[in-house]
Model the fold of this input.
Amino acid sequence: MISGAQSVLLACETLKDETEEVFSRTGKRLPVRYLPVRHDRPADMRAMLTRTIDEHADADFILLAYGYCGGGLEGIGSPSSTLVVPKVHDCIDCLLTEEHRNADFRTGRYFLTRGWLRGKKNLPKKLKALSQSLGEKRSAEYIKTVYGGYRSLTLLDDGAYPIKEVFSPAKEAAGMLNLPVEQVNGTLSRIEKLITGRWDEDFLIAAPGQCVKREALIR
Done:
């Protein structure tokens, strides 16, 4: 990051705990906008980010605490600002250690953080709503179809919040899905590097006029 440059951080609200923890640890505070979750609607996510980026056209650098998110960042760019984006698949990938950032580890695991459990469409609420709207039998069939490929609910302990706070809702969801709960360590290193300007090969730096492309983010 260039000394004296104006920067703003746009972050998915699921990463608010982690972002605020990095602010606290490093003493580096940036103007930040926490944006609603749109990972399940990539087109809506692109439109939201485009509008927000345009609102900060006077910034030298716009930092995105986001992953590619199924195409949500595809084609995102700014005519006047440099965009900086972690090279990750999604927000969970941003918090995984290098040891765990592989398909073998991720396959079959449904990852949870406090940010994901705090959302309006969090897993326990979603499962309860299914049961109420579809009834016990149909909701069980739906759950088997959608979640049958998972083998565990995995809590990410990244140090941004007391992990004990998420055990209860995680166990509640796991009971409805008939899955075990496990816990693995996460990391804040990518968010810290993003915020403090230590942009290495793990980041895409898109100059004004350049657009984010999948091949530049997904390794």
In short: The beta strands are 7-12, 32-35, 61-65, 82-86, 109-112, 152-157, 181-185, 203-206. The first helix runs from residue 16 to 26. The chain has two domains: 7-94+188-217, 98-185.
